[in-house]
Every structure is written in structure tokens, then in C-alpha cells.
């Protein structure tokens, strides 16, 4: 997809500097994190010999640990009006965990513990970061603001696997990947400290977490949270998608870290256009269309292929849903509870994705990979029908 320099400049001028700074932090951090994500699933399954069920437990841990800290971190950010500080702590913890992988060696248990700590860092930083984005942009341009942020984030997601591939090609050592990843993550923390501005409300945050939980009494917010969690429950994680592609397509292990590149490239090309489309045409139609592409991904993986469109369709799915959901959720929340409310939504999604990974890993181990995909595809369609009905 071609974007002219004039169009790109126009988009950049309408996006607040704070959003661009947060995008730069996410870009750098994603280079670091995707270096690890690109090699870790295949290292665990192909080198250490984990079964699909065991990998499902590790992958579920990847999502589930974030659920333990998201709400608490979101409340702390709102309560003390220190969204930048809380986000910085999360970014810093994840950076240190890159070195933890060096100490873990070939122990799956230790690697799982480091992954848990790394995901704790992600759980701490995500809601404060998204709250800063939503508080830095005009309500009518939130889709574009989140689209720009997610596009910058995705540049990092593209560069990370390439960096991992290059390091492994030159050195053949996973330890070197971990060291380089740490250095890049540390740079991301430095950019956050130097260039991101905090947003402090005139109204102090709540003294307890109860007001955030009380948001669920509001019908529109409760409905949004429940439907988002339902869709999270039937969303297959990226590592499982790529493992299925490797299993079905017989891709050589040396090229496995490159599989996420097509996904990231499509996400990068479509994040901003789909975010702007959601602002103009409505966020629900874009969100629903994105999930229909996920159903097509399941159909291709459950059938005989072709498999090459899968990473492309996965990129469309993320571009149409990730930032669009946050843009739809932000305006439903009062400013003083913006971080806590988004953390509540993300906590529910994290728990749902954890359960999804564990259940699919078990289904693959005991019944094969197809029945689980069929069930998840049907679940997406049912959830979308409920979503459309609820938003009429």
C-alpha cells in the first residue's frame, strides 16, 4: 500500500507529539520483544521438545500473568497521577527480563518464570500508555491516534524478527539474541524518560480500586467488556498460528523467525487507514470485519491451505481490531478513571486469552489441531452476532 509523503506529513501534523513519542517508545521496545517472540516458541517446541499442551500452558502464562497486575497498575497510575512513571516501571522490568533469559539456559521452568516476569512488565505498562494516548488526542481523532501508535509499534514488530534472524545467522547463539534485545529495550526506556510527557488531571484519582470496578455497573461499559472478553476467549495466539503453519507447511526452522514479518507489514500499512475509517464510518463495522478475517485464518489452518495468506490476514485482523477497540473504549470512561477502566478491559481480555491458549493446547494434544480451530471459529461468529445485536 503506497502512502505519499504529503499524506504521511498531513497525518503526522494532526497527531499530538506525545502520541508520536509513545509510538517511538513502543517501536523500539517491540524490536526488543519481537526478537524474543520470534525465536522462543520454536526454541521451546523444536529444541526443548515441549508438547502442544505444555506450550499452551507457557503461552497461557504469557497472557495470564498480565491479568494479575493490569488493574492494580492502572489504579496506581490514576490514583497518584503518575501514568508515565507506572508505564516506565513496566518497560524497565521487561528490559531486565531479557538478561534473565541468559540465566535460564535450557530450563523450560526458568524460561517460564522469566516470561512471567516479562509479561508482568507488559501488564504494568499497557493501560497507562493507552490512557496517555487517549488523553493526548481529541475524541474524534482517537482512531487515528491509536492507528499511528500501532503503526509505529508494528515497525518494531517487523524489525524484531529481522534482527533476531540476522543475529542467529551471524552467531548461531540464542544468548546473543537476548543480549542485543536487552540493549534495545534499555534504549526504549531512555526515550520514554526523555520525550514522553505525563498527563495529570485536575480531579484526583480514586483512593481505592472500587470506583474502577463500579464501572461495570454501567450497561454500555459492562457490555463492551463482556463481548471483548468473549472474543478473546476464541482468539488463537500468534505463536500457535505460526506453529500450525510450520507443522502444515513444513517450513524450515531457520526461516521460522521471519513468519511474523508479513503480519507486521500488513498491520503497518493498514493501522492508520483503518483507524481513520473507524473514526468516520463507525468503529463497530471495522471491528466486526477484522474478526471475520480471523475466521478465514482458522478455515485455512484447519483445511489444506493455502497457508501463505495466513500472516497477511492476521495483520488485517490486528489493524482492524486492536487500536479500534481502545478508541471505542476510551470515550466511555471519565478522565480520572481512564487508566483503571482500560486496565479492567485489558485484564478481562488477558484472562480470556490465557484460557484460550491452555484449552487449545489441550485440544491439539488430545484431538488434533482441527476440532479446536472449528470451535474457535464458531465462537467468533457467535460473539460477533451478539456484538452487532448489542451495538444496534
TrEMBL record:
Primary site of residence: membrane
A Pfam family annotated for this UniProt entry: MFS_1
Keyword tags: Membrane, Transmembrane, Transmembrane helix
GO cellular component: plasma membrane
Subcellular location field: Cell membrane
Record's bilayer topology term: Multi-pass membrane protein
UniProt GO molecular function: transmembrane transporter activity
Domain Major facilitator superfamily (MFS) profile: 18-392
TM spans (from-to): 53-73, 93-117, 177-196, 224-242, 254-274, 286-304, 369-387
PANTHER family named among the record's database cross-references: C-METHYLTRANSFERASE, MAJOR FACILITATOR SUPERFAMILY TRANSPORTER
Annotated protein name in UniProt: MFS transporter
Record organism: Planobispora longispora
